[in-house]
Design a protein that fits this description.
Length: 717
């Protein structure tokens, strides 16, 4: 043991002597820089050969002490965006876990923000942005995004100034980033940001390229100018929505009519702006909004005179844009006080809201019916009933009124009148079907089911007869014609091949070539004749086949009506029974309908799922009419709103604003989850918009202080 210790001491002595020697050598040569010190790499930023490596090292070290040196190098090196991005990353605060993930041993407890050090360079990136220098433009984008993301109020004025610069083709995307960044400011800077955004939205648009002659030389420049305006204005509207800017209500309302192409974005922003919007919109729909009226007078927005606005006055047609857009947003705001104003619009003749490519849009009546359906106010029931029950009223009005009626009526007094419409073979077919749907949404007793069974049997029989007709001689004729087409095309191709072969044969006679040509021409004509016959015979079959499928679909819709009536009769308004529909499986529903529907063996999976959706729709309608009495079911509904089934989500969205007691603490978060779940699903695209509208409504309903809107609210669409 003593011998081992003695040996170890001698080894340590030699190591110590060697270390001392190395230190002495180092002293003679000059002490090397510490590779873990930001100062070491900051000094190398002036060396072009070391520049990129130094930037990488400073980024990896993560020490904000390097910000100033990086900023000065960024200025000297023609402002490379990569360097500014490193400055931004070094300025961001990191919590303990984030610092650990980046292996920043100098910051074991996390890293504080260092925006004060970075801000001068961010401001410089915006102030000195050169549209002819792509690196400068890219740096401006990064700077604007960082100032907004960090909410740097000392950079707000520069951000505003940059956003309001005259837009150019090369700079506009950077300016859009700045405009979006303005939507991030709360606190002391919020008012200035809102004022700047309102100023952008109020700008007069350049001429719409649709108004230019098709051969106009400057059409391309018009398109570019309008596109820049469109981008910036749309971004400003989105940012006002993100800021929940109630003071912007009038500006946003005017922007609907100044740039109707941006209505989707304006709609989101208006609904997010709070109850103050309601007064503005009610004045519009009453025709008492002075600024909107003046805009319509100046721009002649109440008439369509062709896409280019060049039709003579006597050929222009009236449009209902003023009432249409206001009605849509009033529906999003669920204000029962607006119901009389909405009903008053129905006294005017229905007119398209606008024309696009000379094609008319939906009418203001349609917008009103949708709004009344959303609001669900009982006071609308009698006026709507008067419209749909009037045999002399216009068909479109009757259709819209009877569809909306089920969502506002609180009793079953209309069932007898509805049943007469359903059974009247002389009545319009679409009206009969719509009346049947409303009937099934109102009936509460199984005594209403036989009428639905009768209608289902009628259409089932007609469908079977049409199917037998279609699958008889018409299908056989189509199959024969299709087979003849195959044979004719085969002979045609053989004749073409033979003609080509003979034409290339140097030994072929002129007579052989002539005969082959005649055969090829004959087979070409025969093939065309076969194609024509197949098209004619196929059209006959497809017509009968289409009718059979349509009548089968109507049969199933009447059977779905039975499901609607059954759940109402069974639940009798009991809340738990109604919400249980949200978790029901097709087999559960079929088990309850077996006494009323006998042909389930012929149903496919999609048809069975339709029954579940029908019961959910009726259950949600009942809950909506129960109003706050059903508020105990709030959580169940908020969980169900994420459904991928279109009818289910639509039904839950209609029920929620009537059931939930406001203010609602969890509604925004739950609806955000639903929006995220529906993102990218084309079948839910329209309903995702409706979900956003409801989320925005709940942000302030009941006197809540609106929170910051989610990031996606600031998107382009």
């Amino acid at each position: 043991m003593g011998k081992d210790l003695s040996h170890m001491r001698r080894r340590l002595h030699r190591v110590a002597s060697l270390g001392a020697l190395l230190v002495a050598v180092a002293a003679l040569a000059g002490c090397p820089d510490n590779p873990f010190s930001p100062e070491t790499w900051a000094k190398k930023l002036d060396d072009p050969r070391e520049f990129d490596r130094a930037v990488d090292k400073l980024e990896n070290l993560g020490n904000p002490k390097a910000i100033r040196a990086l900023g000065e190098a960024w200025l000297k090196q023609a402002r490379p965006p990569r360097v500014l991005q490193v400055i931004i990353e070094l300025a961001r605060p990191l919590d303990k876990d984030e610092a650990a993930k980046k292996f920043l041993s100098d910051f074991p407890d996390g890293r504080k923000a260092s925006w004060d050090a970075a801000l001068p360079f961010l401001i410089a990136a915006l102030k000195d942005a050169d549209e002819n220098n792509p690196r400068s433009v890219d740096s401006a984008v990064k700077a604007a995004d960082a100032i907004g993301d960090a909410g740097l109020e000392d950079g707000l004025d520069t951000l505003i100034e940059f956003a309001q610069r005259p837009a150019t083709k090369k700079l506009v995307d950077a300016q859009v980033t700045a405009v979006r960044a303005l939507g991030s400011f709360g606190g002391a800077g919020k008012g200035r940001a809102i004022s700047a955004l309102m100023k952008l939205v109020e700008q007069e648009p350049p001429p719409n390229p649709r108004t230019a002659p098709r051969d106009a030389e400057n059409r391309r420049s018009m398109e570019e100018a309008y596109g820049r305006y469109f981008k910036l204005t749309g971004a400003a509207i989105n940012s006002l929505g993100a800021l929940r800017a109630s003071e912007a209500a009038k500006v946003l309302v005017l922007s609907i009519y100044r740039t109707p192409e941006l209505f989707g974005q304006v709609r989101r922003a208006l609904v997010a702006s709070g109850s103050g919007v309601i007064g503005e919109l009610r004045k519009v729909i009453q025709g008492k909004h002075a600024e909107v009226n003046q805009l319509f007078a100046d721009k002649k927005l109440d008439k369509y005179c062709g896409d280019r606005g060049d039709l003579p006055p006597d050929q222009c047609v009236k449009v209902s844009a003023k009432q249409f857009y206001a009605a849509v947003v009033l529906g999003d705001l669920y204000d029962t006080g607006a119901v009389p104003d909405l009903l008053a619009v129905l006294k005017d003749a229905p007119l398209p809201a606008y024309y696009f490519d000379e094609q008319p849009s939906g009418t203001q009546h349609g917008a009103v019916f949708d709004a009344l359906r959303k609001i669900g106010a009982a006071e609308a029931a009698e006026p709507l009933r008067a419209i749909w029950s009037d045999d002399k009223a216009e068909l479109s009005a009757r259709l819209g009124a009877v569809s909306a009626y089920a969502f506002v009526a609180r009793d079953t007094s209309a069932l007898d009148r509805l049943s007469k419409i359903i059974e009247d073979n002389n009545e319009n077919g679409d009206l009969r079907l719509e009346a049947a749907t409303t009937y099934s949404r109102l009936a509460t007793s199984t005594s209403a089911i036989p009428l639905m069974q009768q209608m289902a049997a009628k259409y089932g029989k007609e469908s079977a007869e049409d199917r037998a007709k279609a699958d008889g001689e018409p299908k056989k004729a189509m199959d024969r014609a299709n087979e003849a087409v195959k044979q004719a095309r085969k002979l045609r191709e053989e004749a073409k091949v033979n003609l080509e072969k003979i034409s290339r044969d140097p030994n072929a006679t002129a007579d052989q070539i002539r005969q082959a040509t005649e055969v090829a021409a004959k087979q070409e004509e025969a093939s065309k004749a076969a194609d024509k016959k197949a098209k004619e015979d196929g059209a006959k079959f497809r017509s009968l086949d289409r009718t059979a499928k349509q009548r089968h679909g109507i049969q199933r819709s009447f059977q779905a009506h039975i499901a609607r009536i059954e759940i109402s009769s069974r639940c009798k308004g009991e809340l738990g029974c109604l919400t249980a529909a949200l978790k029901a499986k097709p087999e559960d529903v079929i088990g309850k309908l077996g006494g009323y529907i006998r042909d389930f063996k012929d149903w496919d999976a999609e048809e069975k799922s339709m029954l579940v959706a029908a019961q959910i729709e009726r259950a949600m309608l009942e809950l909506g009419k129960a109003g706050p009495k059903a508020s105990s079911q709030e959580g169940v509904l908020l969980d169900a709103v994420k459904s991928d089934d279109r009818l289910t989500r639509q039904s839950v969205l209609l029920a929620l604003p009537k059931v939930v007691k406001v203010p609602c603490a969890t509604c925004e978060a739950k609806l955000d989850e639903a929006i995220k779940a529906g993102a990218g699903k084309t079948t839910l695209a329209e309903l995702n918009v409706e979900t956003e509208m409801l989320r925005n409504y709940f942000s302030w309903a009941g006197g809540r202080t609106p929170g910051k809107a989610p990031a996606e609210a600031g998107g382009e669409n």
